[in-house]
Design goal:
Structural class of chain A: mainly beta
Order of helices and strands of chain B: EEEEEEEEEEE
Radius of gyration of chain B: 13 Å
Largest sheet of chain A: 7 strands, mixed
Oligomer: heterodimer
Number of strands of chain A: 11
Distance between the termini of chain B: 41 Å
Helix content of chain B: under 10%
Order of helices and strands of chain A: EEEEEEEEEEE
Number of helices of chain B: 0
Strand content of chain B: over 45%
Shape of chain B: globular
Chain lengths: 116, 110
């Protein structure tokens, strides 16, 4: 079974530039998550999708971050414009279902963003 | 809100046993997960507890006390490859969203 795919793996941009990350979850997984992991910290949830609908985006800085999952499969996360403090690893994860059942989240390899 | 605390760093010797503690405060508890994360890699699932007690899986065991807001991950017969960060994560009652602690970086020495 193929895992969660993410691209690019690394990205270096200057502040105020825009950047986009792509995630392809495990086939059949309805729920998709984007996390931000700053060096030395645990992952912080940015947004959760159930199919193509947003379940929770309460921690997404909506003035600069946006995410979509138009067809309920792939997802993109965009930052526009980037700030120095956005330097982090952006992790995508997926699970088969959301809700109350036991659900292990499978993580992709992440995109390491450096903002100069 | 949620608050999850775990030690920042721990050091242990190859072949020994180490216990990594996690305390949490949350409204609406629906399970606690432990993940392992090697440097530069994605987190990988280790264990899940939703009821009080000990869950054993090979060299790794995880314990939960919901009344105390406390969990620990126990690693036995430590190997050098166990050097990694160990993340404690709590799931809220609604949905499948996880809140992670800061992680404990474990260094295993010969």
């Amino acid at each position: 079974e193929a895992g969660v795919a993410q691209s690019p793996r690394y990205k270096i941009i200057e502040k105020r530039q825009s950047v986009a990350f792509w995630c392809n979850p495990i086939s059949g997984h309805a729920t998709l998550y984007w996390y931000q992991q700053i060096l030395g910290q645990g992952p912080k949830l940015l947004i959760q999708f159930q199919n193509n609908g947003v379940v929770d985006d309460s921690q997404l800085p909506k003035d600069r971050f946006s995410a979509e999952r138009l067809k309920g499969v792939d997802s993109t996360l965009k930052i526009q414009p980037a700030k120095l403090e956005d330097s982090a690893v952006y992790l995508c994860a997926s699970t088969l279902l959301g809700g109350f059942s036991y659900n292990e989240q499978f993580f992709g390899p992440g995109t390491r963003l450096t903002v100069l | 809100g949620q608050n999850i605390d775990q030690p920042t760093e721990m050091t242990a010797t190859e072949g020994a046993i180490v216990q990594i503690n996690c305390t949490y405060q949350t409204s609406g508890f629906n399970g606690l997960f432990w993940y392992q994360q090697h440097a530069g890699e994605a987190p990988t699932f280790l264990s899940y507890n939703v009821l009080d007690g000990l869950e054993e899986k090979g060299r790794f065991s995880s314990f939960l006390s919901r009344s105390k807001g406390y969990s620990y991950l126990l690693l036995k017969e430590l190997q050098m490859k166990d050097s990694a960060s160990y993340l404690c994560a709590v799931r809220r009652q609604a949905g499948n969203m996880l809140t992670f602690g800061g992680g404990t970086r474990l260094m295993v020495k010969p």
